[in-house]
Sequence to fold (203 residues):
Amino acid sequence: MSRRTERQNGRAAARRYRNLVEVFGPHLRDAASSVWRRTAERLPPVVLRYLFEVRSALFSGVSDANPLRLMWVAPDRIEYYDRTHVGGFGQVVEGSWDERTDRFEDELVYRSIERRYADGVPWEETELYREYRERLRNEGSPLYARRFDSVAELDAYVEGIDRLYERITTEGYWSQRDLLRARPDRARDRPGTATTSTSTRSS
Fold:
């Protein structure tokens, strides 16, 4: 076979490949994304971390900034936060979505926790508690998610935060990776959700 014929065959094969991608590409991407989400929900974090590395190397639309890689940051250096949801972890998305930032110290949860533990005020006097309580009374639904069905459940929830704070104070903070190693049986109560009981080390 001559080189000219080889080049013609190569160009023809490339055209056929492009045509297949144009026709089936979106369906294949949707299917692959669905499989990825279902798989990710069932895998341990350590496995997911390496899968993200492989995924970013294989697909151009995935960032190499692994969302599961642990990075330590001094809390005093955190000034802004962004809670915009623009797709799955690691997605590269165009637009100006990343230009909207809010000051971390203005966040309701931050202000309330600071009032509780730095100023020593009761939970009932914090903005977070009052807003949760009012939403329960007026709408039957709390601020971010339906965590509570009554004020009694809200009280039990903030008491749990107090216990957590005391344990971190006395035992120190453990990362989720440490907790998985120490107590793998209590690391998750359902796929993708860490239990509050695993936020500090167990004695």
Summary: Residues 176 and 199 are 7 Å apart (CA to CA). The longest strand covers residues 188-190.
